[in-house]
Design a protein that fits this description.
alpha+beta; 55% helix; Nucleotide Exchange Factor Grpe, Chain A, domain 2
Length: 172
């Protein structure tokens, strides 16, 4: 019997089928390569956009820091002048503090509003001292470190010394 009679297919049919399968596989491989190239290009573009985005969003802050660096350099040079008085140094230093606060303001960072009564939302008690009388209980005796917030959220609470009524002096 012939090959066609046994299987119902001729060698020519099998060869054609194999040829179509090979063409389909080649087409799939080509599509996969095109997809991989497109994905790699897209990934490269997204990486570039991300890097540019980070650069563009941090650039104003970095420029503010560079301006502050210039002011620090100016202050340092002014300290070595022989005719600089303590008053001029104090004024110049206050200028640096004000300029630094301006850098923070431009980043929407503002000092916490001071309160004479302890508030756990904005204060961190680092020391407790006896209250001179009951009316001063939970009052803020002293601010050790200023607190700051951004967008209504506390970045750093004020570190304070708090009065506590009924607390005995260690000297008693």
């Amino acid at each position: 019997m012939s090959d066609k009679a046994d299987s119902g297919l001729s060698l020519r049919d099998v060869a054609d089928t194999l040829s179509r399968i090979q063409a389909a596989l080649d087409k799939r491989n080509t599509e996969a390569e095109v997809q991989k190239e497109a994905f790699d290009r897209l990934h490269q573009e997204l990486t570039q956009y991300k890097e540019d985005f980070v650069f563009q969003t941090t650039k104003p802050f970095l420029l503010d820091l560079l301006m502050f660096y210039d002011s620090l350099t100016w202050f340092h040079r002014s300290l070595v002048k022989p005719d600089v008085t303590p008053e001029v140094i104090a004024e110049s230093f206050q200028y640096l503090v004000d300029e630094f606060l301006e850098v923070l303001y431009r980043q929407d960072i503002v000092p916490v509003e001071s309160s004479r009564t302890f508030d756990a939302r904005i204060h961190k008690a680092v020391k407790v001292v006896p209250a001179p009388d009951v009316s001063r209980n939970n009052g803020v005796d002293q601010v050790l470190k200023r607190g700051f917030c951004r967008g209504g959220r506390v970045l750093r609470p004020e570190e304070v010394v708090v009065y506590r009524h009924g607390l005995k002096d260690k000297e008693d």
